[in-house]
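Quick illustration, no need to memorize.
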Amino acid sequence: MQYVISPPPVPTLPVAGSDQQFPVRRIYCIGRNYAEHAIEMGHDPNKEPPFFFQKNPDNIELSGEFPYPPKSSDVHFEIELVVALKSGGANIPVDQAMNHVFGYAVGLDMTRRDLQGEAKKLGRPWEIGKAFERSAPCGPLVPADRVGPLTQGAVTLEVNGELRQKGDINQMIWKIPEMISYLSDYFTLAPGDLIMSGTPAGVGAVKKGDRMRGVVEGVGDITVTVV
C-alpha cells in the first residue's frame, strides 16, 4: 500500500521484563473515580454515573521528562493506575471483563487545569486541558499474571519528596471490571486500549524543576521531572 504521506509511528508501551512493545490504540480516562477527589473538585460522588474522556495515544511520554505546556499557568499532576487490554468487544459482562486485561502500568494524567476549568464553564470538551502533547507520562506495562488480582494497593504521588496524593485501589468508586463493562456498552473496545482509572485526592500544581514520583503498589513506580 502506498500512502500520500508517511504514516505516523504506532505509540507503544514497553512490557516490563521483556523486549516486547504493547501497541496503543486508544486511551480512555475515567473522571472523578475516587470520592475524595470528586469532593475536592466540587462534586458529589454519590450522584454521578461514571463518565470518560480520552487522551490521544501519542500523548504517551516515556522519557521521564514532562515539558511544561504552553498556554497554561496551572498544570496539575494526577497519579493513576493504567489498565491495558489484550482483547475487547461490545457489551462485555462485568464477570468476564478481567479476561480482557493484559496488564497494568503507572501513569500520570497531566492536566492544564486552568484551560479545563474554562472549558467546563463554557460547556465545552476537555481535550484542550487533557489531551495535549506529552500529557500522559507512563511506566512500563506489567503483565496481569505477574501482578495477580488487583483489588487493593496504595496509589501515591510525591513531589520533590513530599507526599501529595495517597489513596488505594480499593477506594475506586467504579472498579476495574465495572469500568471495562461500562465502556464497552458505549464503545467497541479492542486490543491496545488503555484505561486510566482515576486519581486519588490531593491533586495540585507543578512548576519547572519539580520531580514527581508516583507509585502503585504491586505494579511499580514512575519518576518524572518537569522541564
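Residues 176-186 form the longest helix (11 residues).
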